[in-house]
Amino acid sequence: MMKNRYLPRTSTLMFAGACLLGFAIFSPMFCVPPMQHVLREELALTYAETSWLFTVAILMLVCTAIPGGYLADRIGFKKAAGIGAILIAVGAFLRSVTSDYTSLIGFTAVIGVGVGLSFPNLPKLISASMPGGRSGATTGLYYLGILLGVALPLAVTMPVVFPLTGGFPGVFRFWSIPPIVIAVWWWVMVKEPARTMVPVSPSSPVTFGQILRDRNLWILSSILLLHNLFFYHWTGWAPALMMSKGATPASAGLISSITIWASLPAIFLMPRLFSRVGRRRPFIWISSLVLAVCALLAGRTPLNLTWLVMAVVGLSNTNRYLTILILPVEMMSHEEVGRASGVLLSLGYVGAIIGPFIGGLLLDMTGGFDRSLIVISGVSFATAALVFGLRESGGRKGGNTKG
Fold first, then answer.
1. In this structure, are residues 217 and 343 in contact, taking their beta carbons and an 8 Å threshold?
2. Is the four-CA dihedral 68, 71, 72, 73 of positive or negative sign?
3. Quick check: 65 and 346 in contact, CB under 8 A?
4. Do residues 28 and 176 lie in contact, with contact meaning Cβ atoms separated by under 8 Å?
């Protein structure tokens, strides 16, 4: 018999909702890097202080990812993610009505709480709502919304949105519109998959303590931490790096966004490669070595050739991240995935806080990017080494017993 090529309507709406919510999560955050020079000048900030306008949302994700997973177990993943969507929309809008640094930090933290409630639950929602055999591919495909939530703000904030809105409060107001619209759409259109409605009880066969004793979860969390240190440092300071090479503020964000645009083909190629290769670790360690070399080359590459480095970083970064994203679904049982994903994201996104802050601190200290690029190159080499301690899942639930 031929398999049904079409997804049920509930699954289609869930997939669309996950893509849209991924966009709503990241677009309010990634409108900050292209205009960091404006924020720094108008608010009289150091580079390190400016980085917090970008990373405090990630700090709140780290703090709320595990509680968000427990909340989802109690009230359902659709409701938990929906509450997160509302908080993202509220924080994004409130950020547009103030120009005080402390208030901006506070409202960005509200966005971060919303991210902590919604982002960790998206893979589980996708897994629960998709027919058997498709959850791995669709978990990767929903990353399309995340990539667009990064790429569009980087590309259009300075050349288009900033001139139209007249300043950074107007930019924040513009990028609050997608979260508001998507939050409404989520509550109206998305339904709770039946398989996510069973709460985790004290008598659950898999306890939280057992999950924490899983060596592979700690290795994977460390890999994600180092991955995020690299990626958020790279995307957070890429516009400033381009300007240091002579790019205009308008073109710097556009060049930086090539990292994301070039990665889009990987979304559609990776699921097929996963099924053909049947192994996961090579996708991480090979990509890590390529990223390490790119970081060393980035500071010395002429501006007119920087697009090539950005493109290679985009492809390699997406290969690495999608592999990390899919591994918990493959390595953990259904009862473990939600809580394991919360632990993974809570620990792994510490790197997203450290990366931009290190970049800003070293920029304040040295006035250039050479030291910070060496640091993230070393981080990516370390990521490649860590992979060999990770069990190979081979694409099968529960993975192999040998590394």
1. yes
2. positive
3. yes
4. yes
Q: Does residue 199 lie in a domain region? A: no
- Domain of 113? 12-194+208-389
Q: How many domains does the chain have?
A: 1
CB neighbour burial string for 111-137, b if at least 16 within 10 angstroms, e if fewer: bbbbbbbbbbbbbbbbbbbbeeebbbb
Task: Write down how long the chain is.
Answer: 403
Instruction: Please state the rounded mean pLDDT for residues 149-165.
Output: 94
Q: Is the pLDDT of residue 31 over 80?
A: yes
Does residue 81 contact residue 72 with C-beta atoms inside 8 Å? yes
Which pLDDT band, with edges at 50, 70 and 90, does 65 fall under?
A: confident
In this prediction, residue 268 carries a pLDDT of 73
What's the start-to-end Cα distance of the chain, in Å?
36
In a domain, 214, yes or no: yes
The domain spanning residue 384 has which CATH number?
1.20.1250.20
Q: What SS3 string covers 343-388? A: HHHHHHCHHHHHHHHHHHHHHHHHCCCHHHHHHHHHHHHHHHHHHH
| Average of per-residue pLDDT across 111-119 | 92
To the question of pTM greater than 0.85 for the whole model, the response is no
Place of tokens 């985790």: 200
